[in-house]
Amino acid sequence: QVQVEESGGGLVTIGESLTLSCAARGRTGGSYTMGWFRQASGNERIMVAIISWHGGTTHYDDSVKGRFTISRESGKNTVYLQMKNLKPDDTATYYCAVDSRRSSYDIDDIRKYDYWGQGTQVTVSS
């Protein structure tokens, strides 16, 4: 089993920054593709940013490109999401996702990810 631990959410005002952290612990076998999805109230869960298991490839939703940066610690299943210039539309619960199986689903398909964090709330006030 793999435990996914998130931290870093909070309440900020427009234009401020936050960094989310996620660590996959437990019976990890190698490096995993990991990333973040978010779910606003009443909406579906959507991909925000993903980083490949080797760290060489990243993917971003168009709405966060240029503002968010995903990174990972070399050789570890720990990822970070640096969020800058936050907007009210960024308000959501952010979930860390882990693909431990190297699934063939598309990178933005929630079915690709077999372990999830409990979610951390990010609220951006105007």
What can you see in these coordinates?
The protein has 126 residues and is an all-beta fold. It is 0% helix and 49% strand. The N and C termini lie far apart (40 Å). The strands form two sheets. Strands 2, 4, 5, 6, 9, 10 and 11 form a seven-stranded mixed sheet that branches. The protein has a four-stranded antiparallel sheet with strand order 1-3-8-7, with no helix packed on it. It is built from no helices and eleven strands. The protein has strands at residues 2-7, 10-13, 18-26, 33-39, 46-51, 58-60, 68-72, 78-83, 92-99, 115-116, 120-125. The relative contact order is 0.30.
According to DSSP, the number of beta strands is 11
Question: What is the rounded Rg?
Answer: 14 Å
Report the principal-axis shape.
globular
SS summary, helix count: 0
List the uncertain runs.
none
What letter string, H or E per element, gives the SSE order? EEEEEEEEEEE
User: Please, what is the average pLDDT?
Assistant: 95
First and last CA, distance: 40 Å
Secondary structure topology:
Blueprint: E1 2-7, E2 10-13, E3 18-26, E4 33-39, E5 46-51, E6 58-60, E7 68-72, E8 78-83, E9 92-99, E10 115-116, E11 120-125
Please give a quick description of this structure.
This protein is mostly beta strands and 126 residues long. The chain has strands at residues 2-7, 10-13, 18-26, 33-39, 46-51, 58-60, 68-72, 78-83, 92-99, 115-116, 120-125. The model has no long low-confidence stretch (mean pLDDT 95).
